[in-house]
Request: fold
Amino acid sequence: MTVIAEILVSFFLVVGGIFGLVGSLGLLKLRTTMQRLHSPTKATTLGVGGVLIASMLYFLLVGGMLSFHELLITLFLFLTAPITAHFIAKTYMVMNLKPTDLPETGRGPGWAIYDDAPESETDDRT
Amino acid sequence: MIAIALWFAFACFGLGLLMTAWRMVVGPDAADRILALDTMVINVIALFMVYGILRGTTIYYEAAMLVAMVGFVSTVAYCRFVLRGDIIE
Reply:
């Protein structure tokens, strides 16, 4: 194993570890729930991405085989992190905010968490 | 050099796991607890991958993939339960 490969794998491991630690520290230190939503969904996901890149490089440069499992996990995490953040924000809004606290939506139906879905204007189903 | 980096990553994600556990215990809101559980799952995935590099085996990918899927589904189910009082309507 060459020195450059070792340096690359170590670099991605250290960067991933620091990002993961910063994300969890933000979850602990920030003040309100909506602020706390920021750090884990971005920094920790990036940290896991760094570790997965390190793992991929390690098995490519040491074992000599290219595996796509890490890419699958990375893709899955990057797809699901915004969805979970959106759901958690909606949960917080339902539990802590009144409908009068929110600004107007500017169109007929109101916020989706309080109002039902609007009736479709062109109903093609017969 | 890789061994030192591996143990550094172990320490970082282990500390992160402790912090998320603390936030889950004291979290004043249900949203905080759900968020802490989700972050805990992500930290566990990272620990699995680092352990796989340490042991030099690829068997831990599958475990990490399963943990990721179960974590996502459980987070969404918990949020649905708080939002609507029901998981599958």
Notes: The CA atoms of residues 23 and 40 of chain A lie 5 Å apart. The helical segments of chain A are 3-29, 33-36, 38-61, 69-96. Residues 69-96 of chain A form the longest helix (28 residues). Chain A is about 65% helix and 0% strand.
